[in-house]
Amino acid sequence: MNLLLEIAFTHILGRGRQTIVSIAGVTLGVGFAIAMAALMQGSQEDFVGKLIDAMPHVQITDERRQLQAQPADEQFDAVAWYGLRPRDDVRGILNPVATIAALEGWVPGIISAGLNVQGVARYGGTERGVSIIGIDPADEVRVSTIAEDMTWGSLQDLNATSFSAIIGERLAERLSVAPGDSIQLIAAGGVTRRLKVVGLFRTGIVGTDETRIYTRLRTAQILAGRFNAINDIRIRLKDPDAAAAVARRAEAMFGYKSVSWQEANESLLEAFEIRNIIMYTVVAAILLVAGFGVFNIVSIITHEKARDIAILKSLGFRKGDIQLIFVTEGALMGGFGGVCGMALGYGLTRMLGSVTFEMRQMSEVSTLPVTYDLLHYAVAVSLALFTAGIAGYLPARKAAKGNPIDIIRGAS
Amino acid sequence: MMRVGPSASLVSARSVTRILTETVPVTLVEDVTLEIGRGEFVAITGPSGSGKSSLLYLLGLLDAPTSGEVLFEDRATSILTEEERAEIRLSGIGFVFQFHFLLPEFTIHENVQIPMRRLARWSRAEARERAAHLLDRLGLGDHLHKRPDQISGGQRQRVAVARALANDPPLILADEPTGSLDSVSSDQVFQILSDIVATGEKSIIAVTHDLDMAARMHRGIHLVDGRIVRDEAQTAPD
Predict the structure, then answer these.
(1) What pTM was computed for the model?
(2) Does the complex come out with an ipTM higher than 0.95?
(3) Is the predicted pLDDT of residue A1 greater than 80, yes or no?
(4) Chain B contacts of A8, Cβ < 8 Å?
(5) CA-based end-to-end distance of chain A
(6) Cβ separation B86–A308 shorter than 8 A
(7) A15 close contact with B: CB closer than 8 A
(8) Which DSSP letter does residue A264 get?
């Protein structure tokens, strides 16, 4: 074995108990850092995963990001308008068949077209503002998880009768409607129809469960008074991460507002970013504290071994050799603690991952979402090595600086 | 005994002054000029605080003079970096102090190997062999695997001598080598030092307050207040 390494080993082995304590400090730091990162990232991935499952990856609506320019704006450099009353544009995506055909040409995923109509649901004197979504049940199953959220009936029941609806559980509660009842729907355009409730769903998102009504596309088109119209194209991609690129391309092609799931949840994803920053700060702080333990023990050793240092220097060891001995001691503790910490972190993650709990409103049993990411292990161990190395270096530098004759004089 | 030629001088001091500048400047060594050749056995004597040890540390490149120049094998050392001086100490100078300064965690066999392993002139196997041979010559062949706290003070000091000889340096510096030993052990250590000089290849400079012992060396340098007041050849009684 290398001489300096051998000396470093004898030093830390000579202080067995303190060494074990400071290694334990690093181990706990690394272990908890890994477990925490696993839980944080696990819950984030779980949440984003649910988000991706629950909503379309790209949604193209008939809105535009900018107001459409008036013809005169395009003709002249400067135009002033007074008292302009815009024409009632026909809503909906133009040339729906051609648009969908064009999308199908290049989008790697499933496309579903629907019609979104605003309206009011009325039943027995109670009225609620609702969002009516006309869908093709067969397509809808493939782009959203609504089929899994059904608590009564099934999506296919929409096909049984022409004027049927599936409504959110909360909405049903508010209206005091039970499956089989007929509710009156008044669309924003004034068309009124009675729809039979054939199913209930619950997504867990209050806003959705309180206001959403699914019906067949044809029914929605009748309510809107516009046959063959669609205003909502939803795309489910094979690779959710490609959503931003697909949305950009679709928007560039058609000019309609195309929103990727990332854009739709921007503030949420930002919150996750902040959460990650907090997490890494806490992890760094934990490891820094562990570093203090290492600093402490290496300082003690340098004081205890002042004579040895002096004699090694008088024998012809260089300053750098002495520093290397103590940095090695710090790194050994950091490295050993880091390896033990990885094992502890893995164990803790396994344990956390097996903790089961029952959601209050759901019958299914869930476990804590955890993730196993090699990056966490690498980051935690390198941070531990780094802080331990620094913790060894600071006392090492001081120890190597000393003049050996001061100590030799003092001893003789 | 002294050889003629450019390498006749092993270590020399030219007008060396060492002033310790702390709260009050203290002159440890003042205007010392001397030359030590190969194969010399030199005693440095003087009252306490006369600068004996300080002079030894200067000659051993452990300390640097405030003014003047220390030459090792005719090489000026004031221009050298600390690392270069460490390199000279490693291969060219062996130290024996009053306190043995052995590393307590290592066996005496390992302690003697430490300078050799740092210098790496010999292989690990050769170093082991050489260390065992040195210890055997000093009568410690049966204790190779004992640690310093398992042997007597006189034995420890002999291990320190073996360690000083490890890299076969031309110069051995001893600072009160027998200062903490009883008379039997002192005689043993002194005899070993004499034997080393007798081979004609190494010089030994020993600081001592034992005037009997000093008188048995070949040259006596007497210091008072950091200055040399006497430097003369002595005829050894034997």
Answers:
(1) 0.71
(2) no
(3) no
(4) none
(5) 32
(6) no
(7) no
(8) H
